[in-house]
Design goal:
By secondary structure, the chain is α/β, with parallel strands linked by helices. It is built from 10 helices and 14 strands. Helix 1 crosses helix 10 and helix 4 runs parallel beside helix 6. The structure holds NADP nicotinamide-adenine-dinucleotide phosphate. The site of NADP nicotinamide-adenine-dinucleotide phosphate has 31 residues, from helix 1, helix 2 and helix 10.
Length: 349
Amino acid sequence: MVSRRLDVGILGATGMVGQQFIMQLANHPWFRIAWLGASERSEGKKYRDLAWRLSAPRPAEVDDMVVEAAAPGRAPRIMFSGLDSKVAGEIEREFAAAGHFVVSNARNYRMEQFVPLLVPEVNPDHLKLIPLQQQAKGWKGAIVTNPNCATVPLVMALAAARHFEPARVMISTMQAVSGAGYPGVASLDILSNLVPFIDGEEEKIQTESLKIMGTLQTDRVVPHPMVVSAQTTRVPVINGHTETISVQFTNKPSLEDLKAAFRGFTAKPQQLGCPSAPKQPVQVMDEPNRPQPRLDVEREGGMAVFIGRVRPCPVFDYKFVALGHNTVRGAAGAAVLNAELMLAEKLFD
Ligand code: NAP
């Protein structure tokens, strides 16, 4: 559907999410990496001379690219952002004001009224906020965000079961260390241990999920009326956030109907043929001890959410385990899918 690959840039190209962006965008059928930006620590260096921290080899197409200052100017119109949230607010605003579309992972703008907090399978209609954002801010560009990495598996599961009307949700997470960026949690704090606190994470899961599942009205998203209670922990896993979730529904389904809803879930990115869209976005595993991060997180290129142990809950209606790849489906892959949806919907024209 795309005759010529569009040039894209990556802000924060040297970080955990930035490197995952490079993996997702190298040889992408619709996009071509044309520009890399990071802090003054990396500026002016060839990408091959900076530390590469993923187990997959660094794609050769970025080897000789020189990292630039994170400022608009020569950067392409479509920008992905894996910037540290301490600096993302100001830099992303500068790019949007200068006419760039910034598809961001950072938390800074997620909850703003006119900013889509997008999961393409769940709320593709929220992209209609973009013209309102441009009008309100006076920008030619725009900012579109993806949620916190732990929120993605939760909302994918809830969206698949949306017609049973989730009303009350309890979620406990076991989150991978790569979710904290590099160098992240000190090894002496996490090896043979877990840390039962991730600053700000519970609030993000509790509020972002309501916006994503919310209803778009004329000029705002009305949050979903469900109540979500989250507890979050950091565990010694490299990639993959595992979540135990209990849900009470207004229209309680049978166990078989709930599993069928998970299995049958499909949405706009699948219909539009977005290259990063998993064929089956929510996959149910029947083995009693799955999903597991080490065994399952890389399946489907890290873009699907894996659900297991779907069973009755004596407190709410049902409980289950969900697993999502935090730097792929929860970050870079999510943003690339957002941009694919925007391109398929002709929003970059
Ligand atoms: P990270 O590994 O710490 O990387 C941060 C990036 O920001 C680096 O490229 C760094 O460049 C750049 N940066 C820092 N200060 C800068 C400055 N003053 N000017 C320009 N660039 C600057 O963090 P990460 O884990 O990739 O996370 C990136 C963003 O994604 C964060 O906002 C995070 O909350 C969000 N996120 C992360 C995950 C995850 O699973 N890791 C999931 C969802 C969302 P240098 O290398 O040059 O310092």
